[in-house]
Amino acid sequence: MYRSIILFLLILCLGCENKITPSDLDLLNGYWSIDYITHKNETFYPKGAAKLLDFYEVNDREGVRKKAQPQLDNKFLVTEDLNNFKIIFKAEKYYLSFRTVWDQWQEKIVELSENKLVLEHQEKRYHYKRFHSEH
After folding, report:
1. What is the CA radius of gyration of the chain?
2. Do residues 31 and 68 lie in contact, with contact meaning Cβ atoms separated by under 8 Å?
3. Which long-range contacts (CB under 8 A, 24 or more apart) does 22-26 make?
4. In a domain, 71, yes or no
5. What is the pLDDT of residues 66-91, one digit of tens each?
6. Which residue stretches of 1-135 are H helix?
7. Residue 79 and residue 44: Cα distance in Å, rounded?
8. What's the number of domains the chain is made of?
9. Which of 33, 101, 117, 126 is deepest in the core (most CB within 10 A)?
10. Within a domain: 1
11. What CATH number is attached to the domain comprising 67?
12. Does 29 reside within a domain?
């Protein structure tokens, strides 16, 4: 009896995976700040006061990512460099698929909610929180 309860709880936990739906993809739009990065059971926190943000703009499963720096007047200094991407769905997961002249790569969307974004690339997980202006 004890084993069947443990098995049931294990199956229940595995079935409760945070699934991302197509309508959730609009939540990617906006400014995101890296909270921390995890890699092989280690956690790394960004240092320094001048943090760059990632700005995402998505329209119909295609989008752009730019770097931005918040200014004191509630505006953003946005770089002219950008990364175009497509959102692809494979093996029950969503990926941001980037292609530049020099490289191509994919970042798996592990979690996406109103205030949290987790992307995985090369065994690293980038944990973002939505940027809210404090002014």
Report:
1. 18
2. yes
3. 24/112, 24/113, 25/58, 25/61, 25/87, 25/94, 25/112, 26/58
4. yes
5. 999 988 888 888 888 899 999 999 99
6. 2-15
7. 25
8. 1
9. 117
10. no
11. 2.40.128.20
12. yes
Tell me the β-bridge partners of 43.
Answer: 38
For residue 5, being part of any structural domain is answered with no
Sign of CA dihedral 41, 91, 20, 58: positive
CB atoms near residue 63 (< 10 Å): 19
pLDDT digits (tens, 9 = 90+) for 78-134: 888 899 999 999 999 999 999 988 999 999 999 999 999 999 999 999 999 999 876
pTM of the complete model beyond 0.85: no
Q: Retrieve residue 33's tokens.
A: 């700040």
Of 14 and 96, the one with more pLDDT: 96
